């Protein structure tokens, strides 16, 4: 099963991805995580991406499309994958369609987690991420059992440098202008599904599982 998770920053894509990969055993391809890993390793890609990420802007399409193209060459993606945070522009979506058709593959489902903007700002400002495994927590809505420590792996939790109010506002604006048009793009292809992201983490996952299993 080849799935795309779309949804604004803070909608819960990362949180839900953890449940999906555990239940359906498909690899998680999160372009934001790939850029952060490149930055941690101080590669040229990471340093280039940082300029855009800190400002809340999108990394240029050519750069993003290339890392996805490379990732899709890897064997583990053959029996399915979950894209999280890709594509984020119409150009990326078209490039993805081309890549997949060249490999005789296609997207099965697009799932958008819908959450209103005022809630997203609160989710982003209270988000904490595990340094070791990338799990996502929230100081108020989804706290770890021990403050500052990951429940899953014991790793240290940190606040992403782009989860400040200024950058979050720019990211939400970028979402509206550049990513939201993808809804119509995938509706036209008959692939689009939406879940109400204001529910509890468990209820959002139940809705997503119903969509996947109804496919
Ligand atoms: P969020 O969890 O807030 O949705 P991500 O971790 O997915 O954020 O992405 C963080 C940043 O990485 C984005 O603000 C953007 O700068 C960059 N990025 C991630 N995915 C893409 C993409 N598909 N196209 C361009 N830039 C991207
Ligand atoms: P995304 O990957 O879409 O940017 P995350 O999964 O990182 O989003 O979630 C953003 C923040 O919201 C995190 O702090 C997370 O713990 C919290 N969160 C995720 N899902 C829910 C939910 N259903 N209700 C309340 N908070 C949530
Ligand atoms: Zn962890």
Short description:
With 215 residues, this protein is an alpha/beta fold.
Give the helices and strands, then pairings:
Blueprint: E1 2-6, H1 13-24, E2 28-30, H2 31-40, H3 44-55, H4 61-72, E3 81-84, H5 90-102, E4 109-114, H6 117-125, E5 127-130, E6 136-138, E7 157-158, H7 165-179, H8 181-188, E8 192-196, H9 201-213
Parallel strand pairs: 1-3, 1-4, 2-3, 4-8
Antiparallel strand pairs: 5-6, 5-7
Helix pairs in contact: 1-9, 2-3, 4-5, 6-7
Bound molecules: adenosine-5'-diphosphate (2 copies) and zinc ion.
One adenosine-5'-diphosphate (ADP) binds at residues 9-10, 14, 31-32, 35, 52-53, 56-59, 64, 85-88, 92, 171.
Keywords summarizing the entry:
215 residues, alpha/beta, five-stranded parallel beta sheet, 48% helix, globular, binds adenosine-5'-diphosphate, binds zinc ion
What does this protein structure show overall?
The chain is an alpha/beta fold and 215 residues long. Helix content is 48%, strand content 15%. It has a five-stranded parallel sheet with strand order 2-3-1-4-8, sandwiched between helices. The chain has a three-stranded antiparallel sheet with strand order 6-5-7. A hairpin with a 5-residue loop joins strand 5 and strand 6. Helix 2 crosses helix 3 and helix 6 crosses helix 7. It is globular. The N and C termini lie close together (9 Å). The mean pLDDT is 96. Bound molecules: adenosine-5'-diphosphate (ADP) (2 copies) and zinc ion. One adenosine-5'-diphosphate (ADP) binds next to helix 2 and helix 3.
